[in-house]
Design a protein that fits this description.
- The structure is a homodimer.
- By secondary structure, chain A is mainly alpha-helical.
- Chain A is built from ten helices and no strands.
- The longest helix of chain A is centred in the last third of the chain and has 29 residues, at 217-245.
- Chain A starts with 8 loop residues before the first helix and ends in a 12-residue tail after the last helix.
Chain lengths: 292, 292
């Protein structure tokens, strides 16, 4: 797996090492993200979510639709529609229309591009599932931002996703012995997974105690464990799709960081769990931003 | 395609011709259906919808999950959950929870049964898409029943689905020359499709003028053409999945009539279009039945 991927080659030509590109990208992206989360008007992050959903859909189309243009274009539009509805007009009638519209239009589009027929079943499934998966997950991230202290909730979901990755990496290197799930992700170990969970609980406690007053800390611990575990599993899920369809990187959207979906695969799941937890366990109200 | 399918063989052993089985089944099913649609308490048809959704999910699992037990079981439960939420508690929070729950749990279940890995991408897609497709479509049929004169609306959606089939069959036999979509359905002709549309408009006008007072007839014509066309396409969609996955019949649930999905493939789409039309174009209110 050490041969250079296509995504890496253009960067080498520009003469920048991968690490430098990563650092440069982070130096631009992190302040921009913090500005959107904490300083900008609420609709800015929501609109960013719709754009990110489009980018994620392009990558998913590459993995599941063989990049076929018409199908991919439809997947991108449907994914943006899901995120936009979830973020801006999450009414019962809009959501139901979306659900019905998704399963009616997805199969119809396949009739326009049925070849190769042996792939049509896979493609029809993902034309329906993809908008729900990418659009719904990014919609969940953006909906967390609608909560009071929304920026902090998004940061918490990110900490639960990447904290798990990072804690897992170091714990795995230090103590890793027993393989977690060799078929899908040969490097992951059980010790790493436990280290990852320890890290998310620590991150959760810091963020919860400092920046989420009013949320009992035992709730933060339960949420961190739940979201951390589901996030680790979510990380494996994108790997399953990639291995199953023979794609190596989900894309090369973020310079030096690979694809967007590669980056946010765990976040998609931690954000979903965090959103469900804030709604059903904590009963926190969300305020939908007005665009116009 | 004239060799007997597995589904036909047990019937022959019982010594009944296929036609006799079909007629007997219809003689039981049609009165039962009419009773549920027009005479029984509202929740009976809604509950029937949830049960039918489970049966449809079993068939879809056979087509897309290779019948794998754990995955199929999860698909059936998730599909029933979608229909139940759409039918009994279509609130914004329930629908959003459903959407988020679907894309989180589907991929997680795949991690428990990833083999064969080359099928995992297809299966993960359908674990998310299937509940939306079968559960949402049957939910749409059951939701039509929530409208004032709900029984008549369901009969209209059925007439638009099966009228198109029947009209298309006779028009195709009489005038059929030009193939409609040879790759997927070699027997269908353009003349048949036009005849099918003529038949649904005729059926729509009869039902609309006699039993749906207050709905302008031009709306009935527009709805009939829209739903008729989408229904014909929906008919082709199940064929695409079957041909793509190498399955011939979706199931053998209805004696003499093949699988449930085979029977209702067009209805799933005409009901969805009819529901969206009654909501967005006619603005008809729906009343959710109370179970308890």
């Amino acid at each position: 797996m050490s041969d250079p991927t296509e995504a890496n080659e253009p960067k080498k030509e520009r003469g920048l090492s991968n690490l430098a590109v990563r650092l440069l990208t982070a130096a631009v992206a992190i302040p921009a993200l913090l500005w959107m989360l904490f300083l900008a008007p609420a609709w800015v992050f929501s609109c960013f979510g719709v754009v990110a959903a489009a980018a994620g859909a392009v990558e998913l189309a590459g993995m599941t639709l063989g990049g076929e243009r018409l199908l991919s274009g439809w997947l991108v539009l449907a994914t943006m529609a899901v995120t936009a509805v979830v973020v801006f007009t999450p009414s019962a009638e809009a959501l139901l229309t979306l659900m019905v519209g998704l399963f009616v239009t997805g199969p119809l589009v396949i009739l326009l591009r049925p070849a190769p027929l042996e792939k049509a079943g896979l493609r029809m499934g993902w034309l329906i599932a993809g908008p729900l998966y990418v659009g719904g997950a990014i919609g969940a991230i953006a909906t967390l931002h609608h909560l009071e202290r929304g920026g902090t909730w998004v940061v918490l979901a990110m900490a639960l996703a990447w904290g798990s990755d990072t804690g897992g990496y170091f714990a795995g290197r230090a103590f890793g012995k027993h393989k977690l799930y060799e078929l899908i992700s040969p490097k992951k170990t059980i010790e790493g997974a436990i280290g990852g969970l320890a890290a998310v609980v620590a991150f959760g406690l810091v963020i919860g105690s400092q920046w989420l007053p009013g949320v009992p800390l035992w709730h933060v611990v339960v949420l961190s464990l739940l979201a951390g575990a589901v996030g680790q599993a979510g990380d494996l899920c994108v790997s399953v799709v990639k291995r199953s369809t023979g794609v190596k990187d989900s894309g090369f959207l973020i310079p030096g960081h690979g694809g967007l979906l590669d980056r946010i695969d765990a976040l998609m799941f931690t954000a979903a769990v965090t959103l469900l937890y804030t709604h059903w366990a904590l009963r926190l109200p969300a305020t939908v931003p007005h665009l116009f």
